[in-house]
Amino acid sequence: MVKKIKSSMNHVVLLAYLAVILFPFLFVLFSSVKANNVEIASNPFGLPTEFKFSNYADAWVNAKISTYFLNSLYIAVVASVATILIASMASFAITRMRFNKLSPWLFQLILIGILIPGNALLLPIYNLMRQFNFLDTHWALLVPYTANSIPFTIVILTAFMRSLPTEIEEAAVVDGLRAHSIFVKIIMPLTVPALVTVFIVNFLGNWNEFLLANYFLSEDSLKTLPVGMVGFRDAYNINYAQMSAGIVYSVVPVMVIYAILQEKIIEGLTAGGVKG
Amino acid sequence: MNKALRKPVTYILFLLPTLFLFTLFFIYPVINATYYSFTSWNGISNVVKFTGLANYSRAMNDPNFWIAVKNNGLFILFSVFIQVPIIILFSLLIANVKKLKGLYKTAVFAPSVMSTAVIGILWGFIYEPDIGLMNNFLGLFGIDKIYWLSDRSWAMISILITNGWQWTGFYIVMVLAAIISIPKELDEAAMIDGATGWQRARKITVPLIMPIISVVIMLSVAGAMKAADIVLVMTKGGPSGATDVMATYMLKHSIKSFKYGFGNSIAVLIFIFTLIITVLYQLLVAKRTERIEY
Amino acid sequence: MKKSLVMLLSLLFIASTVLAACSSKQETTSPQAGNDKPAEEKVEPFEMKMRHIEIGDSNKNRFGRLEAVVKNTEAENPGLTIKLDGVESEVNRKDKLRSEMAAGNPPDIFDAFGSPDVGVFAKEGLVLDLTPILEEMGLKDKFVSLTPWTHDGKIYGLPKGGSIEGYFYNKKYFAEKGLELPKTLAEMEQIAEKIKADGKVPIAQASKDAWVPLMTTNNLWAYYAGAEFTNGFKTGESKWDDPRMVEAVTKHQDWVKKGYFKKGELGLEYNNQRNQLLTDEAIMMYDGSWAYSALTDEKTAGADTKDKFGFFLMPPLKEGEGTSSMVDTNNGYAFSAKAAEDPRKLAAIKSFIKNFFNEDVQLQSFKEDGMLPSMKIEDSKMKEVAEHPLMQEILARMNEVKYTWPAFDALVQAEVNTELGTGIQQVIEGVKEPKAMLEAMQKVQEQVNEETDAAQ
């Protein structure tokens, strides 16, 4: 009985928290079907007087979502997966391989990477992309996106890998497994919750990235979603209704991917028990 | 015995891609920025004139720069002392409920999915003094109108609230992943011993997720030091520079007026300040709470 | 389960990498495929890059006009393909164009701001000097103002359009309350008092971006200190702490103190001042003529805007002194100096100029977007295309302007602009008095002037 009350208390607190953080989304949902800026600005959180679903169709066309959406999806997925592969290899080497002198230094070096302010570094990166002839190809986003999230990913993954007991791979070594097998067969599967989380986080960053996407790509057919979104709000004018519809287009897919990943994979794995 | 994990070639191969990209995208730009920070380069010209430490002393002597530094400090304090406890609290709550877990985990993440530019417009409506959500809500309790974004005593807090709204869920998701990785047996054993939920959380869960909490703190600090977008979209550093942080100060006083060298010196300062804080943090706090075994 | 996930991820990655490789391959093979074309077309194809900022729904008319011009230019220059690259205005101005300039490799034709940007690029020899071309084409005297584009006596670019600034007002409200358009600043204040007494916000203003209130301040000081006064800051002839400047800024602050603007407007985004006017919260709004489309477009303004809004200029201090307004021509197109080394590209640039900067395009811009011409165009022709009553009114007011001047930010250095931005917000906020703010401004101005002198 006491337990029940306690757990329902938890739910009360959590639901209250959700209500607070999700309330602003009502603005987005309501605005996306409102008729014009006047209706939105005079009562931003009020219910729409009539539902204008054509905003979604207009936003779809105006932001060229049909083209940009696939580009975004493809770039965000590839870059995030590439980051994870590269970063997990490095994290494995740093945390699980026995190079106790060098590893801490490498880790500190990479840690410094998350401290670097991005804004000042654009010009050198532009020059790199130009020299590699990457400008105006998807490589101009894939490579920087992959590289930019590496330090963050390594910091997270090393934190997870460190918490795994050392006995695990010692047993594997005794079984005669080589380093790469230990990495692929033992450590990676055990880190899946972290990998999925980091994937989501990186995917999200890439999905919303605006500056480089605008900067490095000229060809319209290559551009990504955030570039299309800017069409609703330039310096002189904002179309709130279509902007809101655009937000729905850009937020929903990420939420769906996240929901699926966390439901099916993280929960599935842990529910199946850790048998190693 | 574990020879497989001592092979230098394997070690290097595993690290090579990271080091390659890291050198290109982090080390090279930083060296580049440091170099130009000692010049008066305008970002375009062929002529690059060395000015020594002039850019640095210019920043150090500008009271506006120190306002920005102070605001970065507020950012850090808010992140570490308000946001992090909330993150831990709600992570534990979510980890401990059985029903609706999926909903909670998905929903808390939602604010982080929105792009910052859009968040600026959205929260503009929330903080609107007359018809905004915030004042309407506070009005229910008879609280007078607050001019959130235009009153300098509230503007910074407004930004911090929005920033917290945007990123708390993001960190909760990370901490949750750590909690999930904890072997169930530990928790179950404690449960059999009759430990209450809070005791288990305090004695088992929190110590085990300490490394990731430490990472969350570090990321918050780094994020707070680099913050620019959220300030730009919320207040543009206003009213009259009261909410400028170092990164927006850099944009305002260098990019706009073709002072690439000066801008780079601010970037280098942000980097150095962050480095100092992180080193201090690691020396003073992290060493005591986490035992890193290499 | 676990294994399959790792497999899945790796597969996904490999598949995508292959895809990426393929897609980039396509791009590298596509140009220079002219070999199997019929031999009689001996024209060597060539490509020019053009940077524009006409992206998104609100710029679709502008983009349409640009595309038409590009097509004509291509038709006139056999072999030419113009590759259009649309970039968001701020990213182009602050990042992309600058990087390209730094690399010595700007697009052949690019959208830019005359002052200070193009001035800086021109100093490095990166921008084509249009002076001889304009003379050759007889265009030199056809523009309303080329001041922002003229550096050291040479013209480096051409403005796309022009704009003036003044008050948009709620015509219906004025009619209902029997208010008449003000002929002096004092009358303007009386009107504001009446509106305030009625419980409405007299003037919509949203000052998160400092340039928004500065439009008003700039107009005030043009009245108090004179239309030419701003020219003198750079040279040291005019002083920011001149008593007339103090008067002008004090007037703006007075209006804030008297409650002519919405309280808390310092935290509001530019777009919000349109909202204030559109939702009848405020009755007047000082804005550029570019606000026309936001106030008439059904998607933003709603359906009943036909006769709702009118336009008048800020009235002078004394009746009959003549109105004074900013005329902005700072945004337009400039051309790469490098491109002009290729005679075919130079020819293409000339035909682009001919096709873009002419009466037809200017009139079309006016008709479709309410964009005022940057070229001198006969009144009667303008009247013919002005359909919307608001546009007719803007046009009528424009013709009454006695004094015109470029916006201050085209006449002072960027640092001074930044400082003034902070300064005006301090004055609005009430943390600094106009005199103290202007004295600080003068110090900055002197310092910047010294630095510019030293650099030259």
TrEMBL record, chain A:
Localization (cell): Cell membrane
Keywords, comma-separated and alphabetical: Cell membrane, Membrane, Transmembrane, Transmembrane helix, Transport
CDD domains associated with the record: TM_PBP2
Residue ranges of every copy of the ABC transmembrane type-1 domain listed in the record: 69-261
InterPro entries (alphabetical): BP-dep_ABC_trans_perm, MetI-like, MetI-like_sf
Transmembrane segments: 73-94, 106-126, 138-161, 182-204, 240-261
Pfam families attached to this UniProt entry: BPD_transp_1
Signal peptide: none
Membrane topology, from the record: Multi-pass membrane protein
Family note: Belongs to the binding-protein-dependent transport system permease family.
PANTHER family, per the entry: DIACETYLCHITOBIOSE UPTAKE SYSTEM PERMEASE PROTEIN NGCG (PTHR32243:SF24), MALTOSE TRANSPORT SYSTEM PERMEASE-RELATED (PTHR32243)
The protein's name in its UniProt record: Carbohydrate ABC transporter permease
Organism from which the protein derives: Paenibacillus profundus
Automatic annotation (TrEMBL), chain B:
Name of a matching Pfam family: BPD_transp_1
Presence of keyword Ligase: no
Keywords assigned: Cell membrane, Membrane, Transmembrane, Transmembrane helix, Transport
Ranges of residues in domain ABC transmembrane type-1: 69-281
Main location, first listed in the record: membrane
Chain ranges passing through the membrane: 12-31, 74-95, 107-126, 164-183, 204-225, 266-286
Bilayer topology term: Multi-pass membrane protein
PROSITE patterns according to UniProt: ABC_TM1 (PS50928)
CDD domains linked to this entry: TM_PBP2
Protein's cellular compartments: Cell membrane
Family to which this protein belongs: Belongs to the binding-protein-dependent transport system permease family.
Stated name of the protein: Sugar ABC transporter permease
Organism field: Paenibacillus profundus
TrEMBL record, chain C:
Signal sequence region: 1-20
Domain of life: Bacteria
UniProt entry keywords in alphabetical sequence: Signal, Transport
Pfam family for this entry, one: SBP_bac_1
Annotated family: Belongs to the bacterial solute-binding protein 1 family.
The protein, known as: Extracellular solute-binding protein
Native organism: Paenibacillus profundus
Upper classification of the organism: Bacteria, Bacillati, Bacillota, Bacilli, Bacillales
